[in-house]
Design goal:
Elements: H1 15-40, H2 44-50, H3 54-61
Length: 72
């Protein structure tokens, strides 16, 4: 009908969105875990080239996998 406005409301969230969010969290945690391990494995020369110290890297590498600086 012309000029008809639907009164059906969409839910504020969907199960699909919720399921996606639930699955993304462990994926992000795994990504952080891998990145921190790779960072810790860098040579001192590479760290120097990046302007980082072994102490900086040690502090980051010791963070828990769920400790996400971006809070994704």
């Amino acid at each position: 009908m012309k000029g008809h406005v639907s009164s059906i409301q969409q839910p504020a969230f969907s199960l699909h969105h919720l399921w996606h969010a639930v699955l993304q969290r462990p994926v992000r945690w795994l990504e952080l875990y891998r990145q921190r391990r790779e960072l810790a494995a860098l040579s001192d020369a590479t760290l120097h080239d990046l302007g980082l110290s072994r102490a900086d890297i040690q502090q980051e590498a010791e963070r828990h996998f769920w400790d996400d600086p971006l809070r994704k």
